[in-house]
Fold each of these.
Amino acid sequence: MAIGKNKKGRKGGRKKIIEPMTRKDWYDVQVPSIFNVRNIGKTLVNRTAGLKTSTDALVGRVFEANLADLNKDESLSFRKIKFICEEVQGFNLLTNFHGMDLTRDKLCSLVKKWHTLVEAWCDVKTTDGYVLRLFCIGFTKRRHKQVSKTSYAQGGHVRAIRKKMIEIMTKKASESDLSKLVSEFIPESIGNDIMRACNSIYPLNNVYIRKCKVLRKPKFDLQKLLEAHQGGAAAPAVDEEGLVEELEGTGGRL
């Protein structure tokens, strides 16, 4: 048999290697106007190709930011806020509130010996139709001129405090819309109300809304989202003619 007689040639050449970053675009992430800093960063997405549009890849994307960066106040660095992208306008992503949490180091610094930790959670509904799950945490406090080493609350006290926490959280949420409720998380007004209400049961301190989760949302309303983003620092001006050309290539929405 002759050497190399049955050798089959390869079909096509080597696959062309394309740099992945050449087919991606950068988008600015904007948060609602209740925060001082509106632009919290950028995100990357593949350009529209065929049936896969960049808008579909961006809507529903979740971003997390520290409240100290959002409000330029280092004393609020223990809170983390989550935002979800709901609309794409040009190269700007309009986000809405999606959740809130405390940092782990803050939670660990609150827990102490010789005190009782009281936690409560409840599902609440705002006036604009959002269903949220709020988690509250609080700790017993030493009384004035207390001699005893420990500050433990009895089981009846704990149940009464937990009932009061749920009552105040439900009342606050049912009287306000989402943006107003989020703005009340920042100065800890709900925690202060709980402390005052529970003072007759057992003195408390370090009462915080530990966590907030969005369980259900009303039907998407673009007008309400635009109202939440009105005011505050305006986005940089973009040439309209250039914007239309960019949108045609990126699958964004006006």
Note: The longest strand covers residues 204-216.
Amino acid sequence: MAVCANMCIGPEGDLHNVSVGECGVRMARAGAHVVGLNCHFDPMTTLDAMQLMKDALDEANLKVHLMCQPLAFNTPDVSKQGFIDLPEFPFGLEPRILTRWDMHAYARRAYDMGVRYIGGCCGFEPYHIRAVSEELSKEIGKLPEGSKKHDPWGTGLKMHTKPWVRARASRNYWEVLQPASGRPFAPSLSKPDAWGVTKGSEMLKQQTARTKDEDISKLQEYRHTHSGKCPTRHGIAAAS
């Protein structure tokens, strides 16, 4: 039975200052047959980290398979811990969702890097996985079953009633599109929480019961005094 081991870290490594490359080497030497990264960061950030891991494995002459399961959210503004520090986590992340075309780019880069377990974690929808499969259909030898429901790269728009929409029926159009958010008052980036809470902190102890309201109030006060920022309807405002 193959042993697969992933870590939820990015290019900066883990919270104990072990590099992503060293983490990969340690997992391989511990007996893992497949090593990689999952969650906490968007596809391209995760692939940047995967390259560091791959380089370290090659330098150590360790032969293992690579796997990658990133988020389906854009996270260029995250800190070392990834998207869990974003003020939108976990229930306001939808504006960051990646398009199916972003997944084509992710799949191609991952495959060309040598990753052969190419998947996804939080935020991934069926159309994202379909896009990954379609991008690699030649390598796989077939299209996914879900491709029967649509024409790849928007070519089904050739049947649209409006000529300006029919003009979008090509890969060249969708591959370079920079989609707008439709939220005129929303910031482009967020300020991640930076509580400095790590292993050994009392606040990190797992509880067996639902947190009491008075304890939630204490956490909210801690957030208010340590982050200096509070989420508002129109972005991030300074705490009063």
Note: Confidence is low (pLDDT under 50) at residues 230-240.
Amino acid sequence: TAFWSKMLPILPVVVHAWLAAPQLGTYAAPRGCVRSRATPKMCAELPASAVEPRGPQPVPPTSYDEAEARGFELYQTGEFERAIRMFELAQTLPGAGSDYVRQKQSGMIGSATAPPNPRGLKLERFATAEQKLIAQYNIACCYSGMGDGRRALELLETYLQQVRNPLDQLNEMIVDADFASIRTELLQLRGQLKEQEKPPGLFGLPFGNPMRDLAAQVGVEWKD
């Protein structure tokens, strides 16, 4: 009785503390921890780099020049696949080309930032054909760096079909270090181009002009 007479005054406090305490067998993951799938009751501390927010992500390029520069950076670091995507994106962004297109609502009223435009025209910029060709050349460089010589050669053949003086362009490709892995194929391609660029003979025949050869033998100047 003496024991209970001493416990009765503090019994409500003990009961309240017991009710407020977490029940045995329950688990609450503390903040800053994640549950492991293998051991769901274990708590793995996250590294500071994973918990803290990262720095600002790079802003997507908004022009051909920005995408091209980003592609060069990726190429130099050996990230060829990402560089290819960047050069492909460059062809769809505003470049050196420009044109005026008519807007749907003509006669728009000017504002503090936009002057009056009574004709409803809008200036649009786009990548020129030359810029797109350069991007294709750069993509071929990436495929060559990845070891995909077949795809690189296909792109270069298409490139040569769209440029002036393809033989001169091909000579530059042969000495380009980016295409060292397909130099043999480029030399073969140059031989084919030389055959195609040979002037036709008399009446368009594949052999030379026999009359010119005869005139040379008798010492007479021949004029075409």
Note: Residues 24-44 have pLDDT under 50 and may be disordered.
